[in-house]
Amino acid sequence: MKRVLLKGGRLIDPSTDTDERLDVLVEDGRIAAREHSVTAEDARVIDVSGLVVAPGLVDMHVHFRDPGREDEETILSGSTAAAHGGVTSVATMPNTDPSIDTRSWVEYIAGHESPINVFPIAAITMGRKGESLTEMAELARAGAVGFSDDGSPVVDANVMRRALEYASMVGRPVIAHCEDPALARDGVANEGPASTMSGLRPVPAAAEVTMVARDIVLAKATGARLHIAHVSTAGAVDLVRRAKEDGVDVTCETCPHYFSLTDNEVRTYDTNVRVNPPLRSESDVRAIREGLADGTIDVIASDHAPHSLEEKQVEFDAAPPGMIGVETLLPVALKYLVEPGHLSLGKTIELLACGPAGILGIERGTLTAGAAADVVVLDPERSWTPSREWFRSKSKNSPFIGRELRGRAVLTLVRGEVAFEHEDLAATPDEGDSGEEGDRSARQLPLHA
Length: 449
Ligand code: DOR
Hints:
By secondary structure, the chain is α/β, with parallel strands linked by helices. It has 14 helices and 20 strands. The chain folds into two domains: about 5-55 and about 375-420, Roll (Urease, subunit C, domain 1), CATH 2.30.40.10; about 55-360, Metal-dependent hydrolases (TIM Barrel). The chain is globular and about 65 Å long. Bound molecules: (4S)-2,6-dioxohexahydropyrimidine-4-carboxylic acid.
């Protein structure tokens, strides 16, 4: 029997409202015990005193570019990067080349070798063209956990209506990329002083807000489950808040860059801050933080969007939108939400693990006895600055390179197996349970960037 004992850590499990110092025993890939003082023979004992033990993060919005652009990311490289960031499950978006719109492609993603759990999201429409619906029942049976044309909106309201009806019949959410192309046109920066000063073509907030409104109306009419991807505007937060009060079955996510960076960033013309939807104004950022705090926003997801250096080393408006994020999801949230006191650490873990697991209907995001041992051990306090070399993603298009962040994953277990381990944690003696309490103050893992 394979056993790992995490000794002396602070267990934060929002699924059971737990925040206390508890040992966690993992046995054959499952949580076997979580108690004050666990002893176990033949276990690998890892001293996690001074560290936080939490459910492995679930990132429900990643682009792994496989099939089609394996030079930018593969399922394996993306998964390795995810484990490095404390992420134990991802849901992959179908805007690959070809797109994930047939049973065999869904099976390809779902069955792929990976150190973490990879759940495919299938396309809403064939080729993501916004015209004819995919065979949703067949794709759901093959393992699709949701449907999305992410990267592009479903412009035709009737197609969206039918998609919601069919997805609801097969018990999966529709994940909406809300962007009205008539309003967004070929804009690349948020409409406002930043776009004016930089001379970059503007995208008004209304491009997002009007389609969020449409999709909420359709969700209400069909009774289907709607999840809104990458919410970036105050207007969208407000609409989702009111729809929830109205009983509509709607959830939404935001991404780290929408609560940490403003549209002022585009004035640097750094193509790593070109993202879709674009970075928004200070007041939008404030509204996103409020939406996270009051439960309007259910999930923080990375929208990990790898792009090659060649594609990004061009003029701002010629660069493809997107930034990598699966490795910095946690440190950006700790730096910009927990450190300034907008959210507690527990609430942040809920948004990063429990919320997305619930929406995807996967049995993750919890460390109750018997649950799959998908665990992250994190150092929540230490300030550090990521370098380009620190990233394990094949692509390096992160605007957080060179910016001080806070905390990060030091150990990632997936079904009880080590998927990532910080080198100094690995040096912890492996000699069975000493029964002694770890010394919190002595715990200093050097967090090399
Ligand atoms: O910035 C973005 N990049 N937004 C999207 O919706 C798609 C994504 C990508 O696939 O690169």
